[in-house]
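Onboarding guide, step 5: your first structure request.
Type a short instruction followed by the sequence, for example:

Predict the 3D structure of this protein.
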Amino acid sequence: MKCIVCGNEGERPRSKFCCSKCEQKYYYQTRKEYRTQYKKEYYEQHKDECLERNKEWVEENRDKWNEYQRKRRKEMKEK
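The system replies with structure tokens like these:
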């Protein structure tokens, strides 16, 4: 049986997928809208907690954050 994601023959005879990677890819593609909506609702309900976690992460990973900002500014200038 061929995989419905990549079209390869797989080692899983009773499955629509050749491997777990293709199965996960299909799952996340089909549930993308639902997951986006869920994330928005979660953020609205837990906004303070999310902002606090973000603030803590930025403080703990200042080097990564600065590098991200430099890269982002550089890309914005090129556009």
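Each response can be followed by summary notes, for example: The mean pLDDT is 93.
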